[in-house]
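Sanity check record (used in CI):
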Amino acid sequence: MSIFLVPALALAACNGEGEAPEVEDENLPDAGDEAEDGDVDDGDEESGDGSALQMGTGSTGGTYYALGQEMANVMNEHVDVDDFQVNAVATDASVENIARVSDQDLELGLTVHIPAIDALEGEGDFQGQVMDNFGFMGYVYPETNQIAILADEGIESVEDLEGMRVNIGPPGSASHAASTLILEAHDIGEDDFEAYEEGFGDGASMLQDGNVDATFGLLGLPATNIEELATQQDIDLLGIEDEALEDIEANSEYEHITIESDAYDFLEEDVEGIAAYAVLIGSTEDVDEDLGYEIVAGMYENAEDVSHAQGEHMTMENIMLGSEDLPLHPGAERYFEENDLLDQ
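Expected output for TRAP transporter substrate-binding protein:
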């Protein structure tokens, strides 16, 4: 069984067909994993000419948006292409970013690696629509499923959530899919609890106000929303039982992660969970090999300029994480090959 081991901020383990269909905005899934509720800004810069690209992030309350802004700043400072500019724009995160990159509406995007695999196969949220005109450009950070509860409420395990009010994340999001997977692995079906489908920010507020008993999220570690919630209420995190972990790993692309007790001040013991990879993807239609090469070089050779906590995972040692089963962008592949990174 492969295991992520994550102390507070450090990643301690290594290893998230045809023409793309037209994607209508109204058919895109709702906010995802790393996204929270907020106004969505599609951006107003012309893109597709190599000088004013758009990078899809998440909604304005989430990790992808804040981190994406800093990534765009680093690219704009260091990508060695005349008049290069990339704008980080708010979206509904992973699934929308993949769809809009495939539809040539975005040039770059952040996504969990699992829906990216689904897109290649026309599975999951993509419902038979194969989307394959994008490529992996680099690892960003580990996304960890975290299940927050109020302490001293008598909830000791995921199995105790049967019959309770549970926020599982927005429909179409990686959080929603992971939450459902975890609950089913503990023999809790969709009719066995009262489901709420909100982003983690709203879910944390609902937990604080006593309107839900637990809230799930696929988040960075540590997650700012959880840290903020812990200043308002005594909380804890639920772990996943060993048998359920084995079932999840056998039937999905998620991997076992250990959240060590020093990840949050309130934790008294390690918590077992599942994790995926957040990755950067690029269009193979609108980002040519040379531009893709320079984007990877400019971003990852200067990743230390990213001050966001999750930015410290963007190292050369980690750069290939999440690439398995995904096509490499031609420019990224050339960069990886020239720097002896392909065998990591």
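Confidence is low (pLDDT under 50) at residues 5-27, 29-50. If this sentence no longer matches the regenerated tokens, the check is flagged for review.
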